[in-house]
Write a structure and sequence with these properties.
- It is built from 10 helices and 13 strands.
- A hairpin with a 2-residue loop joins β4 and β5.
- α6 packs across α7.
- By secondary structure, it is an alpha+beta fold.
- Strands 1, 2, 3, 4, 5, 6, 7, 8 and 13 form a 9-stranded mixed β-sheet that branches. The protein has a 4-stranded antiparallel β-sheet with strand order 10-11-9-12.
- It binds (R)-mevalonate.
- The site of (R)-mevalonate (MEV) has 13 residues, from α1, α5 and α6.
């Protein structure tokens, strides 16, 4: 028996970085997905990964990675999923070998939650092999794996990949699902600069250690934007949403997580008719997002191409993790 799970990536509309400390963030699941197909191995406890559309495959024997295709260092990208798979089996008190196939159309290390989507899908698929898990269990186990690899993440990424839709996420508080009157078009621009969320979160923490009052003020203002943004989102008030995105981008720049290329993309989008544009995710490269009336999306797409970046017109993914058995 094989089990397959898919989980969506995400775009943070408001509240990245501030959510690590306090206050809410608003996050949208996007219709770019990670897919995992898992099956048990009978003869050993190795965990094999086939990530061949990313150009690599290999296996873990314990914690040691051996490459089959691609350089050894590429195995680092798989550690989170190996841990997610092991923690899932621990949950059932089982030790088994696994074959895991990973496929994803979410750009990697770009702030769109590819790692959490694949962790959630790994837990979902492996869990299904041993009897199945609730969404809450999937989310919690995926978070345990994310913590080992990504330092001290807020938990926003594994929650949105598990539950989908539009969520208000705040550490220690109950998730709030946002009902939109209607979906709105938005566009993501990928700067093609890879970056590490862990390093960027640490950079903000270091800056906060040096300038606590200043940085706490910025964090509180971003949290306030999320609160106002939620109202604007519910009202379908795109002009206000755009203003709030623009201010949020300025505050993220003040935290030191934007780069010149993202700023250029953000300004090019605004100049092509976006209501607002901001970086999304941890920054330092990765992606920006813009919202606009449908008739302006095409010119924003072109503007992003002109910045030598890749536009993705995306929709909200209303479903989170989805699991099926393949007999
Ligand atoms: C990463 O998707 C969002 C950050 O706020 C980090 C986190 O919340 O764990 C930058």
């Amino acid at each position: 028996m094989q089990a397959e799970a898919t989980a969506p990536g995400k775009a943070i509309l408001f509240g990245e970085h501030s959510v690590v400390y306090r206050g809410p963030a608003i996050v949208l699941a996007v219709d770019k997905k990670g897919k995992v197909i898992a099956e048990k191995r009978d003869n050993d406890n190795r965990i094999y990964f086939d990530a061949l559309d990313l150009g690599f495959s290999g296996y873990f024997d314990g914690d040691k990675y051996t490459s089959i295709t691609g350089a050894d260092w590429r195995g680092e990208r798989l550690v989170a999923f190996m841990i997610a798979a092991k923690k899932t089996m621990e949950n059932f008190d089982i030790e088994s070998g696994l074959n895991i196939k990973i496929r994803s159309d979410i750009p990697i290390a770009a702030g769109l939650g590819s790692s959490a989507a694949l962790s959630v899908a790994t837990v979902g698929a492996v869990g299904e092999l041993f009897g199945g898990l609730s969404k809450e269990e999937i989310c919690n186990i995926a978070y345990e794996g994310e913590k080992v690899v990504h330092g001290n993440p807020s938990g926003i990424d594994n929650n949105i990949s598990t539950y989908g839709g539009v969520l208000v996420y705040e550490k220690g508080k109950e998730l709030q699902r946002v009902k939109l009157g209607e979906d709105f078009p938005f566009i993501i621009g990928d700067s093609k600069r890879k970056r590490s969320t862990k390093k960027l979160v640490r950079r903000v923490r270091d800056l906060r250690d040096r300038q606590p009052e200043l940085i706490d003020g910025i964090i509180d203002n971003i949290a306030r934007i999320s609160v106002q943004g939620l109202e604007a989102l519910k009202d379908g008030d795109f002009r206000t949403l755009g203003d709030l995105m623009n201010v949020n981008h300025g505050l993220l720049s003040a935290l030191g997580v934007s780069i010149a290329k993202l700023d250029t993309m953000v300004h090019a989008s605004r100049g092509s008719g976006a209501y607002g544009a901001k970086l999304t995710g941890a920054g330092g490269g990765g992606c920006m997002m813009a919202i606009a009336d449908a008739q302006n999306i095409r010119s924003i797409e072109k503007a992003i191409w002109r910045c030598r970046s890749i536009p993705h017109v995306v929709n909200i993914a209303h479903e989170g993790v989805q699991i099926r058995r393949i007999e």
